[in-house]
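Researcher: Here's the sequence for the chain we discussed earlier.
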Amino acid sequence: MKAVLSKVVGGPETLVVEDIPAPEAKPGYAVISVKAVGVNFPDVLMIEDKYQAKPPRPFSPGGELSGVVKAVGEGVTNVKVGDRILANTGSGGMAEEVLLPANRLWHIPDAMPHDIAAAFILTYGTSWHALKDRADLKAGETLLVLGAAGGVGLAAVELGKAMGARVIAACSSQEKVDLAIKHGADAGVVYGRGPFDRDGQKALGALFKEAGGENGFDVIYDAIGGDYAEPALRAIAWEGRYLVVGFAAGDIPKIPLNLTLLKGCQIVGVFWGTWAARNPEAFAKSIDELLELYAQGKVKPHVSERFPLERGADAIAHLGSRKAMGKVVVTVG
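Model: Thanks. This is the structure I predict for it:
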């Protein structure tokens, strides 16, 4: 079978497509015929050894997928051959077949296309955990989403609206803001591309404060980091919650802690993967809740580009360019 492999540390240009042995079922596991793979920012970082998790090489990128169960091992009762499933894998998804623990598989409805299913679990899981568990977002509160047209950002916009919040989308272009508004944001701001000098950061802070109004933002969802973090934090409400989700801008910001004192606010880390591993029952419940929101039509991934497996490297490069909107998906077969 074919797989996209990272054999050396480097960017997307170092990835290769090779034939590798097909997996065989073993106790507690299932073999999945992969139909689609969601591409996410951790894939960009992982192949460069810049992510928290560093799988041994050679490995395939791809932390979430959808497919059909091809075979099951001894003791597997929750899925059977022919079932349509989605799964979060951490890595290894960009292959024609994968071997996964059966307890990490979720059934998907017949009406859910495979490309949509492959774009679902990581972004919505992250944003649901961030807004529900870490921020305790309440109806009527105001939410600012940085990078609101990206995968996790667009999910945060939809989920924030589903939770009854007023949502302000912050993006690098008007086109991206328009997409976020189409997915439920009440308004948006265009913040331009950094890096910013101090005057630029002050101007950005003024932009965020104007968007937040007199009271500021109750919750700020930040998957961007870099020079955007401090200006956004300056627009937070009294006793607001600032969610640290990721650093797509490339730099980890240094925050003046006096701002947390002056605002009485919290800076809250969001690491969905570790939380899911530590809390399997809560994780499983969250996926069920998200699938129910999908069934109700309240959330739906926006897949902007699709690449065949042979162009998996191009898919990762496109996402890394920060030009993608919504989700990028690799299709298989």
